[in-house]
Amino acid sequence: MTERLLSAEELLERFTSRFGSGISHAAIRKRVQGKKKAAHYTIWIDLDRELLRPAIQALMEIQFPHLSVIAGADLGDAIRLLYIFSTQFGHEKSEHMVTFAVTLPKSDLSVPTISDLVPGAVFSEREKQEFFGIRVVGIPDGRRLFLPEDFPEGVYPWRKDGCGIPEGMVKELWRSKKPADRPAPPAGDPEARSPAGAEGEVQK
Amino acid sequence: MSGESKKAPYKVLIGPNHPALKEPVMFSFEMEGEVVRDVDFAPGQTHRGIEWMGMRRNPVQIVHLTDRICGICGVVHSLSFAMAVEDIAEIEVPERADYIRAILHELERIQSHLLWAGVAAHELGFDSLLHLTWRVREEAMDVIENLTGNRVNYGIVQVGGVRRDIVPEQHGIIERCLARYEGLLGTLLSFFLDDKTIRMRCRDVGVLSRDDALALCTVGPTARASGVNVDLRQDYPYAAYGDLDVRAILPDQHLGETHGDVYDRIVVRLLEVGESCRIIRECLSEMPAGPFTAEEKPAKILAICKKATGEGIGRVEAPRGECLHYVRMEGKDSPASWKVKASSYSNLMSWLPMLRGAQIADIPIIVASIDPCLSCTDRVAVIRDGKREILTKEDLHRLSVARTRRLQS
Known about the structure:
The complex is a heterodimer. By secondary structure, chain A is an alpha/beta fold. Chain A has a single domain, classed as Beta Polymerase, domain 2 (2-Layer Sandwich), CATH 3.30.460.80. Chain A has 4 helices and 7 strands. Chain A has a 5-stranded mixed sheet, with helices on one face. Chain A is extended and about 80 Å long. Chain B has a 3-stranded antiparallel sheet with strand order 1-2-3, with no helix packed on it. In chain B, strands 6-7-8 form a 3-stranded antiparallel sheet. Chain B has a two-stranded antiparallel sheet with strand order 4-5. In chain B, strand 4 and strand 5 form a beta hairpin.
């Protein structure tokens, strides 16, 4: 654990100096809000799949980081996974977000697990497996998380290719109409009363 | 209880819907006598595919969809989503909107923490305390209704700002509510913290160590009660919080020690109600004049969003902890990707260390102590002759109609 708090530039420098050409893109985004224009920073780092675990280990040297979530996007020929971390929390206005992004080609949708480094990550890894159809190598618990047990195999809801949700599975609620095969309402039901009788009633 | 094994450990299933659980989630416990040996849970009983729906709608529509992710968190999801889109489209939010966002955010925290305090009291068997907390919670709900027009699904946040201003006549209404809560807080604290029975039921029950809290990515009051100094309003300021002096509330500041148990979770949440009152008051006095949205016309907001390309993150400190939205826009109507990370998403894993070794009678209060929020159910699982089938709303409706017919014939 380092003593001094790092600025966003110093933090990014730690990764660019160590991983060099393995980082394909790096950026710092600053956002200011409020009257005093207090700033917060997000560091975006795109790196090779092989560098994901070393990069997280480098982040852990600073402080045990917080993993918010693993987000993802279907880019067509590849799946982009974003490991959204934050570090230097517990100090006023000094937390930075660090996002590691890896791109997995659809021909090889595998990524190593990080749950041995960050045990809580298994929750998000299980979700990415069932929603994107990726394979997390070494995951300690590969069961489904959110999808129901009878959900078909090989359908991944967040994919935008042939593996996504097929038309037939989408329920268009706005198309549904009042069922025609309902039994007639019993006598005394407000729906069956004559309009004249209903007028005098106090509506609940 | 399953009849497979006659020897300990016994398998006990609780859920997906159970009177002792406020939210639908499926637990399976391995019990040895009264003690939980191991535990596993299955969420997803309520998964509605909101992210999938969002990827087929435009940002102006999605803001209203985010309002409906959670029944009582009407600000945090819409605010996170709006901040993510503003981040991508480089929309600068007016300062006044930052303050209005913070005020509503804190009012929501007050009503959410009071709702939770009532649930906790009920789980412990103190129903008079449940009724007291829920009655006083109504005042925050009334103020929220006055400011936004709604008790739930506020529809107040929009991309670029907020949809309604807070006018001077409303300051008095907010002030009256804050004064009431500040006067009441001492009473509530002594009801919860000085009560011998509550102390016996909650002290050193459902303990989450600081290391486990960090390792399992725990957020919000659950993490703070375990001594993790984390609060986005302090660490990663957004909206008006950068202007205010906000400090994370930790149990050792007030009790001199941290146990990481259910009792500490009560302490943190109740003290945060007082802190929220202070923040709202400071926001009201410091609120700058000016517009409350960057763009009033939804069509123009939409036109700006359509041109936006890139990735953005919006992140706020919800009543239950960090709420995060990731959005990817590719210059089209709808986002290419959208991930909603609600606070309970990060907190569910912390149930495992809390429940291991617990007594069976403590399960409800431990489960409730992280303030889980899994929202309303959308399907029912029926297990008949060992076969499991999922019933949809339509199936249930059909069964209901069939039953009416049977009764009539």
